[in-house]
Amino acid sequence: MESHLTARRAWVIVALLLSAREGAAQALVGADVAIENDLVWRGLTRSNPTSIQPAIVVGYKTLSSVIAAGVWASLEPFAPRAADLSNVGTGGDALGEADVWVQWDRRFQKLVTLDVSLGWTAYTFHGRTSLGGRGSEWDTSELYVKAKISKTGPLLPPLGLPRRLPLALEGSLWKDLGPIGGVYGEIALEADLPVIPLGEPLGSLLLRGALGLSAGQQSVTGTELGYYEGSGPTHVELSAATVIAVPLGAAHLTVYPVGHLQVGLDEATMRRGLGAGDRARVFFWWGLTVSVLFPLRREP
Known about the structure:
The protein is mainly beta and 300 residues long. The chain is built from one helix and 14 strands; from the N terminus they run H-E-E-E-E-E-E-E-E-E-E-E-E-E-E. The strands form two sheets. It has a twelve-stranded antiparallel barrel. A two-stranded antiparallel ribbon has the order 2-3. Strand 10 and strand 11 form a beta hairpin. It is globular, with a radius of gyration of 19 Å.
């Protein structure tokens, strides 16, 4: 789903931007696999059984922009319990979801660094509704835009903050083109803190706080498709991660462990199971992603 897809897609895009030498155009291909104890998407728990999520991406980098495309899937290899939430459903096949995406990124560097992303994602679901899963009636697509301001040193002193504080501010907006309609947005603040000792293989401690917001993505009648119980704030998510980089010649191998703490604000983001009492305003989940990125060719 988009939260997982975005986290790994963002890492691949950053790798695409940083892996080639300045001024060199380069084509790259990458793959990763993630394991998560819960599948949580935009604050909504979609699957309680542990999920495995493979992905493939191809991209092309120029001096200041990247065009990339990829495929992502969610597999549920362990059968859900009767009260579990599941994309597949009880007794269904392992494939719950398969998504395709295309994204264009452009980096602007003046006083601060501004990264702008435009993209499109198609979501397809392969569970069986009769078994408690999520079927093709949920298939949809979205257009999205994202802007991230980093290297914010010149902006911090007027706010009373030290210039060297490694903060980044990000805003994202997704417009649903299918049966759900409406829009979803996120505002996030990130801190990239150095780890001691500095350098490989351990990179930085990445801290992120995000607020989710929805408009028009609730089920008005109770029978039509919808994500949330109402419009407005959906949830607050706090996460902590690090990147462990392992050199493989020209390739880039990374291990990305992350932990998430969520506070639900919309009733739908508190739902943790099928039972009436299966809800939690605050809960924790974790994930581990292993990625590899290969350069295909380099142009002067």
